Amino acid sequence: MKRAVLILVILTVAVALPPLYSQWSESQRIKQIQEVKQQARTVFGDRLETVLSELESGEPPSVVILYTGGTQSHLEPCGCYQEQSGGLPRRAYAIEQFQKRGFSTLLVDAGNIFYGKEEIDAKRCEVNLKAMSTMEYDAVALSESDLAYDDAYLNRQRAVATFPFLAPDAGRGNFTQPFIITQARQHTIGFVVGETNEEVVSQADIVVALGEPENPEHIDVVIYPDEIEATASDDVPLYVGCKSEGRTLSALALWMDANGKLTRHYATEVALTGDVNEDESIRQLLTDFYRDVAIESPLQDSQLFAEQLLEQQSGNGYVSATACQRCHEQEYLQWSATRHAFAYETLLKKERYFDAGCVSCHTTGFGYSTGFQIGDSDSTLKGVQCETCHGPGKQHVGNPKKTNIRSGADTSLCLQCHDTKHSPGFEEVVALHSKDVNHSRAPMNLEELLASRIARMGKPTLELFVMSYCPFGVQAEEKVIPIVKKFGDAIDFKLQFIAEEKEETSAQDITPFTSLHGYPEVAENIRQLLIAQEYPDRYLDYILCRGKKLDKSWEDCAQKLSIDVARIQALFDTAEAEQLFRENITRAAELGIKASPTILVDNHKFGANQLLRASGTPCQ
Which of 20, 159, 211, 430 lies 20 to 30 Å from 1 when distance is taken between CA atoms? Predict the structure, then answer.
């Protein structure tokens, strides 16, 4: 007996241990990746709310000078990871928060604002100045590098700015001035470039030099366009600097006595990371810019792996992952739920789908004649597909051989996109990441996929397309709805129906719609939409109940869940209910979806058998 028990225990451990070890090993792998990447993702500056709270905690400052410098008209970071700091839309929002809190604010730039000699660079700088004009900058200093541009360029830039350009007297007098004097409540602030003007000294309580002053005498504050440590003493001015490329918004709070003498200061950098909201008007300005210049982008500069043999072959080309699926079904299913497959949706959410620099790494074959093209909403080459790693597959599809396709084992190719700028820390853990692209792994199920999307992108959209009387559709609902309840507001769930509107109707038609299972299905579809509208906290339970009782009256489930039958019936007989259903079925028609059930996660189509591990025959 004891021996039998011992054998049973050993067998139990032998069966249970491998899966437990596998789970532990996977969690350790992910933890190590996260730790290495987190250490590599330096956050510059303090949180916006921390800075605002600090300034509100005591005596309010006499003035808060918000400043930038060394931006080189950098519009925003690429957005590849949460900790990236910077961007004009976030900067505008942060400035507005200082103003909303009632601080007396002045807004200036210390120089090194222009960069690049190409026409695209000039347009980018114009967009930057337009954004700064919207933010109502008080002045922008021109550094020596800025003044190195010719008069035609500088006049072009000046034409879109609503603020003065400051430069020394020896600068370009036709569009610059050496100083401005402005008021901050009861105090007068002078901003100078180069030599300090007597007029400024006589009128201003505080004199601020933007860039290196020719003589620090009479200067109270020096703002450099470069990164320096803030320094101050009784004998010399206060020196502060800026983070390059607009990665932060610098803030300098000054306290002055009744005579205008500087008594104390507080200097800090505001981190413009993903937790800072964006100003919508500035976001739209940038989106318009990306759209306008997309066609003009030099595509050859955005080609990945141009030095590789397969990409150089004139007879080769891109055929998309669907062509690979015909022979590599398991690999395709595993890939289809990975972050690579959703890479283009990342650009859509971040409004970067017109930026060639981003598109090249988030699509397949961009820059090549057969690859993804900007603006092609129907392209089958969205996302990082098979051919990104394995090379264009036209020749391989026509004649499958190992010699006309890449193995994908060379991880150095990954670093062309996952470089230190876009994926800091990736190089150190690239070997650990290889498991993510191991196509022998089991594909993610729906719950795993949603959790992955939430962790990476925030709130994913889950759409379930069904016919309410379809047995396989009902089975899918029974599996999906508990998952929807589990995630709650962390996902955006939409129930979509598959039906059609008749081209012509007669007086004998009960409804203008047709569905596979006839009028009872159309009626049930409409009722479910009405219940979802009127009882959003109960409609999922109604669907589960109804799926088990399609042969009985719908009123049984409605009454069980305290849904007002008379109210739903009254709404059912209205033109509004008909329009509600018409709008709902449009989505399936636009996407060409005819099979119930069909699942979309962030616009990616999946079969229920893959994500739900379900079996059955779709209704179509």
Answer: 20
